[in-house]
Design goal:
By secondary structure, this protein is mainly alpha-helical. The longest helix has 32 residues. A two-stranded antiparallel sheet has the order 1-2. Helices cover 64% and strands 8% of the residues. Strand 1 and strand 2 form a beta hairpin.
Length: 127
């Protein structure tokens, strides 16, 4: 059986939730096998939650970049336009002993020159 009562309630919700939504069960058994099955499936659930969090973070970063680009160019930008014109541009990364140099394609360089000061202003406070 799983640890304390809070853990049991959590796993019970994980098992019971989807079944109650479709109306298949009214009473869920609370024996050890049910909770052991929930613990076995917890890794998959955490993987899905992690994927969702990464997707949400990526959307937030794109939204902040879109707003910064709109402020810099004083024109409306969509997420699709930002992705196609700014982020999917060709670039070359040169790594030497003491520095890394990113060489952007000529088509994307003006966009990055406009957006970079806006992104620099978003830096948080030093620790």
């Amino acid at each position: 059986m799983c640890g304390d009562r809070a853990t049991q309630v959590f796993f019970g919700f994980l098992i019971r939730g989807p079944f109650e939504l479709v109306g298949e069960v009214e009473v869920v058994p609370t024996d050890d096998a049910v909770f052991d099955e929930a613990v076995a499936g917890l890794g998959d659930l955490l993987f899905l939650f992690f994927g969702l969090l990464v997707a949400m973070l990526a959307y937030q970063i794109m939204h902040v970049a879109r707003r910064a680009m709109a402020r810099a160019t004083k024109a409306p930008w969509s997420l699709r336009r930002l992705r196609e014109r700014v982020l999917r541009a060709g670039a070359r990364l040169i790594i030497s002993a003491r520095r890394m140099t990113l060489i952007l394609a000529a088509t994307a360089a003006p966009y990055w020159a406009a957006i970079w000061p806006q992104i620099q202003m978003l830096r948080g406070a030093d620790p």
